[in-house]
Design goal:
This protein is of the alpha/beta class. The chain has helices spanning 7-14, 20-31, 33-36, 41-48, 52-61, 67-78, 95-116, 119-131, 143-154, 167-176, 193-204, 219-223, 240-262, 264-279, and strands spanning 134-139, 160-164, 182-186, 208-213, 226-229. It comes from Soehngenia longivitae.
Length: 283
Amino acid sequence: MANEKGSLEKIVQIYNDLNKAEKKVAKYILENPRDIIHFSITELAESSGVSETTVFRVCNKLGYKGYQDLKINLAGEIIKPIENIHEEVKEGDDTYLIMQKILKSNINSLDNTLRLNDPEKIINATQITLKAKQLMFFGMGGSFSIAEDAHHKFIRLGKTCNAASDSHWQAMLISLASENDVVFAFSNSGSNKELLDNIRLAKENNLKIISITANPKSPIAMESDISLIAYGKESLFRSEAMESRVSALMIIDWIYVNSAMISKDEALENLEKIRKGIASKRL
């Protein structure tokens, strides 16, 4: 994702080769880099006094696929990484320091996850979810705990929901599913072979695939209709998968809450039924 040279350095290098309108964009970015991270392309165009086409042209000249790509790289350049706030957990750290370090590390992962996922993808994932009759949540190993959490949430939408970690169960569920039903695929690496095989089977059966991985270029991400990125960073005592788990749970919340807001009446009715159903289980 990262380029060898920073975004600001690239702008300086190509500045003299830009036309008058393009220089307005470049100048605004150089003078207000932190604002750009929160700007839409329309806001940057208006602030620079140019058209959106001009902004997009500058992005291309910098070597980026589009405005979102520029924002991601710019954010990575000007926001200090978590290492500047704390070092990884070490032997001798007391409990409070460990708590602080893990907190800041998780916050960093959540911030990066927010930055790396286009809201349009969440909107599309919500629309696909609401159209489906059945939702299936698949994950292997540690990823299955996230699939189970998603299963627990989305059952409140009143849809048929299933979660499976066994590849044979996954294949069976896929074979019995209807067109446009949805498979949520959870895999930190995005490279689990058995899960990938079942995703391909699901595509053959015209099911929709929403994947949540830490690697946007992984095979599972590439095979998905919608690929969402759960950022995680590996450290001495915590694997990347442990950290990206928190990010994945947030992504699931994005889609679930978005879906529940759209189907509010049904979701609230289902929640009330569930509360009444489990009331007898409490003292």
